[in-house]
Design a protein that fits this description.
It contains 19 helices and no strands. The protein is mostly helical and 472 residues long.
Length: 472
């Protein structure tokens, strides 16, 4: 009986083992298959960070552009635009990093610290006009935590937030937080003397300096490194023209905020008011002359009548007027002189292509240049810069143009030249290189159209394929 029981147990164990081995729910991965799965996870995280960076830059730019439209002081517009440029540059730089996990943590640090700065400092500068900017930062901060879903557990998320709060507590007046990264908190924790203890508790700071591809199969690692480098390079190059446009716009705000520029604009406004007053007086001059002429004739007629009465003549004043009327040369009032062109009109003529001006506008501009050597020299400098900009000859002609400006007595242009000298290489590239954002202008609208077509009916994999394979 015991032998039969033993055979039954062995048979049952063999059946259970066969069932387990053949079960489809138990999978065994080779190292290369595991490497491919891990590489796909890293790629998905990197794409999430890149999409968030694009959304971050756009949602920060919209309220700042609206704020600049409402804000009059040039200094306030410059500070708001500097914030926009620093935020967009930081977001794109983070998204182009080599470690997707560190990129996600850096993006959380950027969103959280930026929200704190807007609440503590910038909102006091802009008042209620900056409320939309604060709302955008709060929404982006909440959205940034979705980047680490499935990457961090609850304790690790609390550790990140605590490190951010400690850094802000030690730097309460810092406004420039765009360059702060998650790795900077490691030095802070080292100073606090708690890093060693945290590393023993599986701290997040162990991610710093860790290659996410180190444990992958060598072949998969080489392929993944090449692919990630190409994706990061293309991603940043596609967004570089937009950052360059922001830098050029910031240069304009800097020029407007300079004291010399404000003085020049004030003088231009005064000159415009004086020109308008002269123009109004010129239009009224014929009527004034006619009324004064009539008053003089009436006085002369009355004086002549008085003299005749003293000599014994008994006629009336009306008789004297009828007698004198044929001797008067009733000349018509002269045509009013053309109104003096306003400062804005002259500025528009100087900034317009000569072949696009009307004949009368060109004639007036030529007359103004002939009468005013200062405006004539200004027009020459403007024309030379326009030709350099349209022909993209900045690398060849910009230095000579700056030297000519610095040798002239144009105060406004000399301030402009000083600003260009401060960042001459960037301006030279903008006036020389053919790259701009025109080639990628419609890419965002195309992606949005494809996304709306398949919203709720397909996943990201299909969206990615449709975007890549779209013929446009």
């Amino acid at each position: 009986m015991s032998a039969l029981r033993l055979c039954f147990v062995l048979a049952l164990g063999q059946c259970l083992l066969a069932a387990v081995v053949g079960c489809s729910t138990v999978q065994r991965f080779t190292p290369r298959e595991e490497s491919k799965v891990r590489a796909a996870q890293l790629q998905e995280l990197q794409l999430k960070v890149m999409r968030f960076a694009d959304d971050y830059s756009g949602r920060i730019s919209d309220p700042i552009v609206h704020l600049n439209i409402q804000t009059t002081p040039a200094e306030v517009r410059l500070r708001a635009h500097n914030w926009r440029v620093s935020q967009a540059t930081a977001a794109y730089t983070i998204a182009s990093g080599a470690n997707p996990t560190i990129n996600a943590l850096d993006m959380i640090v950027l969103a959280t610290l930026s929200r704190m700065v807007v609440e503590d400092r910038l909102l006091a500068d802009y008042g209620e006009r900056g409320r939309s900017l604060l709302d955008a930062h709060r929404s982006l901060e909440q959205q940034s935590w979705s980047l680490v879903d499935g990457v961090l557990n609850a304790d690790q998320s609390k550790e990140v937030l605590a490190a951010i709060d400690r850094w802000r507590a030690e730097n309460p007046t810092t406004r420039s937080v765009a360059q702060v990264r998650f790795a900077d908190f490691a030095a802070l924790e080292l100073r606090r003397g708690t890093q060693q203890q945290q590393q023993g508790n599986n701290s997040l700071f162990g991610f710093i300096g860790l290659d996410p591809l180190s444990n992958l199969d060598p072949a998969v690692r080489e392929i993944e490194q090449t692919r990630q480098l190409a994706e990061r390079t293309i991603y940043y190059l596609q967004r570089a023209p937009g950052l360059l446009d922001m830098e050029v716009e910031r240069l304009v705000y800097q020029l407007a905020a300079m004291p010399e520029s404000e003085h020049t604009l004030t003088n231009i406004d005064r000159l415009s008011l004086a020109a308008e007053a002269i123009g109004t007086l010129s239009n009224r001059a014929p009527d004034i002359i006619a009324s004064e002429r009539q008053a003089i004739i009436s006085q002369l007629t009355a004086a002549l009548h008085t003299e005749l009465r003293e000599r014994g003549w008994a006629g009336s004043t009306q008789t004297v007027r009828r007698y004198v009327r044929p001797f008067r040369q009733a000349l018509a009032a002269p045509d009013p002189a053309p109104a003096m062109p306003k400062t804005r009109q002259i500025t528009r003529w100087l900034l317009t292509r000569p072949d696009h001006l009307q004949a009368d506008e060109q004639a007036q501009l030529d007359a103004i240049r002939a009468r005013c050597p200062h405006i004539d020299a200004l027009a020459g400098h403007v024309t030379a810069f326009a030709q350099m900009m349209t022909a993209r000859t900045g690398s060849r002609d910009l230095e000579a143009w700056l030297a000519a400006i610095e040798a002239d007595d144009q105060a406004g242009l000399r301030s402009l030249a000083a600003g260009i000298r401060a960042d001459q290489q960037a301006v030279t590239n903008g006036l020389t290189l053919p790259w701009n954002s025109g080639k990628v202008e419609g890419t965002v609208n195309k992606i949005k159209m494809i996304k709306r077509q398949m919203y709720g009916r397909a996943g990201f994999d299909l969206l990615r394929k449709r975007v890549i394979l779209h013929p446009a």
